[in-house]
């Protein structure tokens, strides 16, 4: 089949566009450099996942000093959503506007929250989000309730929720794309960081690609890596050069949708020499400032299995020095004995008792866009230079979280920043805007330079906010699908 629409990448962005266009009848080809993730005993084995990196790509990038590192990327059908924490949060309305932080000021978006709201609602319906409206004081206006009630707290987490309320905070249910009963049928493990083998997590493959591929006009090609795009003298992108089975091929298409992730999409555009009249491709890389924070009580055991059901946004918009915004607090997936031993480097005799008595939190602060934070290429190798931004804000958030957890009855609170070699919330490298001189795509994801090229992943996001980007990517991709259908 010669595609009318070529979609590069099968993750959140690519799968959502495919689902949005499937009913149009247009021939659609989705290309994915990885393969379908097989079910195996490794899928619920913490040592295989977090220790041996069984599912992780061995690919190496270079950092800003030219040193190689493993970026811990996952290349499978469904993209990184196969491993994500299934947190499907809307950006706050304030995130779409310029906002001052301790480390600088965000530029704002070329669209408002109100323009995105209907697309958020559609995305929540697609991903069957479990949540509860009205609990979070920063929650933006909604036109519809959540499709399903929230994933229930386990006993120890219900106690944490009560304790946080008792000191005047507003813990709220974390919006999640998880059928918890179905997930636990496969094994008593958390889902955060564990691969979904079509067993209860609402990932891009399970929810969207499976349905799209039921249409005869939609096809998926795996183990097909896009090396570069090609364009004619009129500026129309005519297709992509791919590597399949060790050989180069040209796939031609009338419309091309790039959704390979913020780093890889930028790398493809840079390798192609396209869509970069603004010199913004690869720039403004963002990835959040994050820390794990463990609240420990020596006499209380945490018997939770999955844990990850609540968040606190009391310090999202204010509460820092000069009442500046600090960020989002949410629970991590349960950090078990083997996971803590692997990720902390602590000896087992110490990691075990701590894990048994800890409630595990995730502190996340906004990473600010900068043209010097960027993706470039050295030959065919990706170079990711990610200088820290807004770190003072993150330190203040971690300090605030430690203080409130002690007030809530946890005498021991430990913290550790997340490894910067893991770009799990990558965004910003092909940002949207109205001015072709300062942005790569328009607010609908269409390239300023090439009328038939669209970008449908997190690379278009002008800011990272301080929440998980998955739902915002899905909302953007629905907009892209709608705009492509309207342009036909």
Automatic annotation (TrEMBL):
Gene3D superfamilies: FAD/NAD(P)-binding domain. It comes from the Bacteria. Its cofactor is FAD. Keywords: FAD, Flavoprotein, Oxidoreductase, Plasmid. SUPFAM superfamilies: FAD/NAD(P)-binding domain (SSF51905). The keyword Methyltransferase does not apply. InterPro entries: FAD-dep_OxRdtase_2_FAD-bd, FAD/NAD-bd_sf, GMC_OxRdtase_N, GMC_OxRtase_C, MIP_CS, P2Ox-like. The keyword Transport does not apply. Residues 4-36 form the FAD-dependent oxidoreductase 2 FAD-binding domain. Residues 422-477 form the Glucose-methanol-choline oxidoreductase C-terminal domain. Residues 140-151 have a biased composition (Pro residues). Transmembrane segments: none annotated. Residues 199-289 form the Glucose-methanol-choline oxidoreductase N-terminal domain. Residues 132-151 are annotated as: Disordered. PANTHER family: PYRANOSE 2-OXIDASE. Belongs to the GMC oxidoreductase family. This is GMC family oxidoreductase.
